Amino acid sequence: MVESKKKQAAPVVLLNRELGILAFNERVLAQAADESIPLLERLRFVCIVSSNLDEFYEIRFAGLVEEALGDAGYRGVDGMRVAEVIAAVRSRVRTLVTRQYELLNRGILPALEKAGVNFMYRPQWTEALDSWGRRYFEEQIFPVLTPIGLDPAHPFPRILNKSLNVAVELEGRDAFGRDARLAIVQAPRVLPRLIALPADRFGANAFILLSTLLMRYIGELFPGITVRACHPFRVTRNSDLFVDEEEMTNLKQALQGELPQRHFGDAVRLEVNTDCPKEVIDFLLLQFGLEEGDLFRADGPVNLARLMQLADAVDRADLKFPPFHPAHPPQLAEPDGIFAAVAARDVLLHHPFESFDPVIEFLRAAAADPAVVAIKQTIYRTGAESELMEILLRAAKSGKEVTVVVELMARFDEETNINWAARLEEVGAHVVYGVVGHKTHCKMLLVVRREGGRLRRYAHLGTGNYHPRTARLYTDFGLLTANEALTADVNEVFRQLTGLSKARRLDHLWQSPFTLHDNILKAIQGEVAIARAGGRARIVAKMNALLEPQVIAALYAASLAGVKIDLIVRGACALVPGLPGVSENIRVVSAVGRFLEHSRVFLFHNGGQTRVYLSSADWMDRNFFRRVELCFPVLDPVLARRVYAEGLAPYLRRDAGVWELGSDGGYARKRSEMPVQERLLDQLAAPASAAPVKLRGMRKALKRRVR
Questions:
Q1: What CATH number has the domain spanning 330-498?
Q2: Going by fewer Cβ within 10 Å, which terminus of the chain is more open, N or C?
Q3: pTM for the complete prediction?
Q4: What's the fold here for domain 143-244+266-314?
């Protein structure tokens, strides 16, 4: 389903969003095939693709199905009919899933076995293994299982979204004389899906799946009845939440009522093992209201995402990426504390190469400092366990004025955020649930401190979530600042979110849904005017997705005017580069590696007065028009040059190891001895004392390139 349905003044060549998302997952799966990557990390990439496909079907594909029910002939902004998109998605996913299991069965698992990690998916049942397995089943699994025999008195049960189930083919008659043919056994989510075997009996790093034990001993549930076969299956359901904004009076209560139903939305995908017979498949498809195109046969576990636990459980450093130590900015070693350091000069943080700890320390210092009178923060995703949130709780308990804008509609984090909101309210914090109809996606933290008889503001602005765990896995930028103009803008945005008033003009920040879209278009048009006047014009932008048609049309126009444009787009990109007479001056690359590329960085050459911005927003319809987002300038020229040197320039090197998008809509991988993320790790994740020396060299190179 395409986000934007606004009419365009003229046709714009666009690629399809859903196929772009699948293309990204193909690039992720290519990491699993790369033998230069450690084995357990290759397994992780296989699992990441499965997890991504789950969400894709729960949201994107489910949306396509709903759209097709309304008008199967509807054409999106890319020109494809929704029925065509559905057919293309099914074909593309089928190829992707087949490749997943090929990599797993023929490459990764055999190699792990040779390396001493034994994953017993189809084990040889020795006497010792059978003895242990039967006892484990009887003691740990059997007591919580409830088999449901299907007959007129026992209809097909409600199946939870993405849960493990087994269809059991039976033969015989039960105690009541009923003909036993088919039963369903649902595996409760309290049962572990991956089970470690005793090391003293089977060696270290030996594991077996719950589904394997179920299939081996499921006959124990049907004494006196013959079990002919059993078939694990899994159904994926539409998981998008529907909240009627016009009827709703309390967002928190509305969500709490809607969340339990997420597990039982309309079915959109069925997964079974390859040996599942046609009659069982036909029966399941009928029960879920699905057709053959929605069926996927798994040559292995029906839920590969569960194997992520295997990668986490094995303690083998030689099979994982080498550990790294995030650097700490030496500026923050200021003896007078973090506020003195930030007051002296803005501090740039580049995660995960630099630690997220300074953000935690900034908040911790604010909570403990008697001079701090108020703390305000937005929360989109932070995790079920969060030191940052615990600090906010302590600050509120201590009597500080704490205001937290919690986005309750953060997809799949709704329940976690509701729980945090409740805890914050209990200790007296002011909790606001954002703006109905506009997700609060901006990342900002404001501290108000009394200094020398006046109040001074300090702020943190970021491209990523306040989530310490993902800060070690995602690339993001953050800025700590005491700049009066910037912090005044941040305060104004908080006032908008917590109060009811007209939006005032912001001096430096570009904000969705008010000014960000217009300002991006104006910045692009500014480069066009410079190019037409004979000047050097350039745009470099990095983001997760590029889909908004008006911005793409503006980039095409800029290319025709002679503006050189480099785009670093991790995921779906609707823009087509290199088209004669359309986009000859545009290059699009995508970086996939150890870390998830997440930062949004925009550079406009501006006639030599280069402007560098960081943002929480991708160039998508939803980010421009249906979310509260911020785009903020890096005003310190030294830090602006550093953003370019670390966040943009390395991805544009010919040896960066990125994927390049062609005019045919396909991606080609550019090989490299040291891919861009490894290069950045080598340069940045070093002892703090070494960082300034390396940065000086990078800044000199940057000055030459930007000029």
A1: 3.30.870.10
A2: C
A3: 0.91
A4: polyphosphate kinase like (3.30.1840)
CA distance 276 to 298: 10
Mean pLDDT of 576-596: 97
Radius of gyration in angstroms for the set of CA atoms belonging to the chain, rounded to a whole number: 27
Q: Which residue ranges does the chain devote to CATH 3.30.870.10? A: 330-498, 510-706
**CA angle, 155 then 158 then 164, to 5°:** 115
Cα–Cα distance list, 599 to 379, 463, 570 (Å): 17, 5, 10
Q: Are 492 and 506 in contact, with CB atoms under 8 Å apart?
A: yes
Q: How far apart are CA 435 and CA 150, in angstroms?
A: 47
Selected residue with higher pLDDT from 380 and 180: 380
- In Å, how far are 32, 59, 235, 240 from 69, measured between CA atoms? 37, 16, 20, 16
Report the CATH superfamily, name and number, of domain 510-706.
Endonuclease Chain A (3.30.870.10)
Q: Which residues participate in catalysis according to the annotation?
A: 441
In the chain, list all ranges with CATH 3.30.1840.10: 143-244+266-314
Pull the structure tokens for residue 494. Answer: 């908080």
- Taking the CB of residue 268, how many other CB atoms lie within 10 A of it? 26
pLDDT (tens digit, 9 = 90+) per residue, 203-223? 999 999 999 999 999 999 999
Q: How far is CA 580 from CA 561, 584, 586, 596, in A?
A: 13, 6, 11, 32
Listed residue (353, 431, 350, 348) closest to 392, CA to CA: 431
CATH topology of domain 1-115: Methane Monooxygenase Hydroxylase; Chain G, domain 1 (1.20.58)
Which amino acid type is present at position 457?
Answer: R
DSSP codes of every residue in 365-433: HHHH-TTEEEEEEEES---SS-HHHHHHHHHHHTT-EEEEEE-TTSTT-HHHHHHHHHHHHHTT-EEE-
Please report the pLDDT score of residue 362 as a whole number: 97
The neighbour count for residue 456, using CB atoms within 10 Å, is: 16
* First-last CA distance in the chain: 42
